Amino acid sequence: MRLVAFDFDGTLSDSEMTVLLGGQRGVADRMASITERAMNDELSYAESLRERAALLEGLSLDDADDAFDRVRLREGAADLIARLNDAGHHTAVLTGGFERGVERALDREGVAVDTVVANRLPASDGHLTGAVEGPLIEGTKDEALESLTAEHDLPLSRTVAVGDGANDLPMLEVAGLAVGFLPKPAVRPACDTVVASMDRLGRVFEERGLLDAR
C-alpha cells in the first residue's frame, strides 16, 4: 500500500472554492488576486486564507451552498481515484479549501477518498462569520502527511503527493514521489515529475506500478 495525497483546488478540481464563494458575495476578483499571490508564494497561505474568508462575512449559507454545488472534479479525476482505491492504496485530499466543497464534488462523481483534511467556514444565524477554522491554516501539508503515515505505519518513502501551489510545497518536498499538476513556477523545482492532465497522471502512476491490481 502507498498513501496518495492530492491537493484539491487547482489539482483534483479546476474550481477555486473561494472564488466561487466570492462570486456569490461580489468579491471574486479580489479573491482571485489574493489566491494568485499566495500560490506564487508572495503571501503566506494563512494570511491569504484569512483575508479571503473575511471578504465572505455575511454571505448566507444558502448562497454558500450554491457555490459549493458548482465545485467539480477535473475530467478523469474520479476514475483515477477509484483505480487507486481498487489497487489498495490509501487516498487522501489535503487542502486549504473547505470540507463541504470537497465532499460535494466527490459525492457528485460517486467516488470517495479515505481521508479528507480540510478547513471550514463557521456560520452564525445562517450567515458566514468571516472567520475560517481547520487544520490547514497554520498547519502545513507535510505535517498532515506525516500524521497520516504514522497512523498507517507507512514510511514517507511510500507516499505520493500531487499539487500545484506554494502551500503544496511542504508535502511535495517530503513525499516519496512529488508530482506537480500544472505547478506554479515556485513549485516546479520541488517536483519529481510534472503533468498537465489526469490522463497523464494516470500514466505516471501506471509506469510506477501504482495501479496494479492488489
List the quaternary state of the chains: single chain
Distinct helical segment count: 9
In percent terms, what proportion of residues is strand?
A: 15-25%
Radius of gyration: 17 Å
Q: pLDDT under 50 segments (min length 5)?
A: none
Strand order of the largest sheet: 3-2-1-6-7-8
Describe this structure in words.
α1 packs antiparallel against α2 (28-39), α1 (17-25) packs across α4 and α2 packs antiparallel against α3 (45-55). β6 (159-163), α8 and β7 form a beta-alpha-beta unit. The mean pLDDT is 95. A 6-stranded parallel beta sheet has the order 3-2-1-6-7-8, sandwiched between helices. It is built from 9 helices and 8 strands. The chain is globular. The chain has helices at 17-25, 28-39, 45-55, 61-68, 77-86, 99-109, 141-151, 169-174, 198-207, and strands at 3-6, 90-98, 115-119, 123-124, 127-128, 159-163, 177-181, 193-195. The chain has 214 residues and is α/β, with parallel strands linked by helices.
Task: Chart the SSEs and their pairings.
Elements: E1 3-6, H1 17-25, H2 28-39, H3 45-55, H4 61-68, H5 77-86, E2 90-98, H6 99-109, E3 115-119, E4 123-124, E5 127-128, H7 141-151, E6 159-163, H8 169-174, E7 177-181, E8 193-195, H9 198-207
Parallel strand pairs: 1-2, 1-6, 2-3, 6-7, 7-8
Antiparallel strand pairs: 4-5
Defining traits:
two-stranded antiparallel ribbon, six-stranded parallel beta sheet, single chain, alpha/beta, 9 helices
In short:
This protein is 41% helix and 16% strand. With 214 residues, the chain is of the alpha/beta class. Strands 3-2-1-6-7-8 form a six-stranded parallel β-sheet, sandwiched between helices. It has a two-stranded antiparallel ribbon with strand order 4-5.
